[in-house]
Amino acid sequence: MTNNYLLKVENVHAGYIKDVDILQGINFHVTNGELVTVIGPNGAGKSTLIKTIFGLLTPHTGKITFKNQNLVGLKSNQIVEKGMSYVPQIANVFPSLTVDENLEMGAFVRNTPLKPLKDKIYNMFPRLSDRLRQRAGTLSGGERQMLAMGKALMLEPSLLLLDEPSAALSPILVNQVFEQIKEINQSGTAIVLVEQNARKALEMADRGYVLESGKDAISGPGRELLHDPKVGELYLGAGKRH
């Protein structure tokens, strides 16, 4: 039943150019508090799915519901107000503003006092509290990713969309970022994680989806997908064609 779903995507077709669909009838769902990973080769439609959910692209056909409300046709700022946050892969902080100012910008639709929220973020990301007066543009890649996630969490979303959070990070920082994603999820926030690091992402996921050519080719519990020979074959095989 729909009531069990925080987010439900049904038979969605979407793309950037008229009559050229990257998503070709995708079905996808997230329940409350769940961590769902989306993997697949480049060009499979992973980022397009996230952008379509968040209102940056409008589906040509299909239905997207969040908390049982229709999202199709809403703008991103309206979707944010319903309790969803999105961290894009790039351009995800304001480089000329300080860490502290970035967090305040993340809470632009809130009328509540910001200090308790900021304290919560600084407790979660202690490295940011050491740099709260530093301009975001001078942070390392890992620190910037932490700030981007912290900024998104200032809205205390029910659902956090993360697009390639480990991209271009060193292995040590990748581990740190994944630990923080796990901590965010354990605090009660549902997460959709689009990630090239398929093994790590599936290890921590409640469920996973493997996309191929804009369709949900395989889905299931994260650890089951890790050991599914079809996933390795599809994921690696499809990657060789690009």
Radius of gyration: 18 Å
The biggest sheet amounts to:
6 strands, mixed
Strand content: 15-25%
Which stretches are poorly predicted, pLDDT < 50 over at least 5 residues? 236-242
Major sheet: arrangement of strands? 6-7-8-3-9-10
**By helix and strand content, what is the structural category?**
alpha/beta
Descriptive notes:
Helix 7 (171-186) links the parallel strand 7 (159-163) and strand 8. Helix 3 packs parallel to helix 6. The radius of gyration is 18 Å and the shape is globular. It is built from 10 helices and 10 strands. The strands form 2 sheets. Strands 6-7-8-3-9-10 form a 6-stranded mixed sheet, sandwiched between helices. It has a 4-stranded antiparallel sheet with strand order 2-1-4-5. The chain has helices at residues 46-53, 76-81, 99-106, 115-124, 126-129, 141-153, 171-186, 198-204, 222-226, 229-240, and strands at 7-14, 23-30, 35-39, 61-66, 69-70, 84-87, 159-163, 190-194, 207-212, 215-221. The protein starts with 6 loop residues before the first strand and ends with a helix. The chain has 242 residues and is of the alpha/beta class. Residues 236-242 have low confidence and may be disordered.
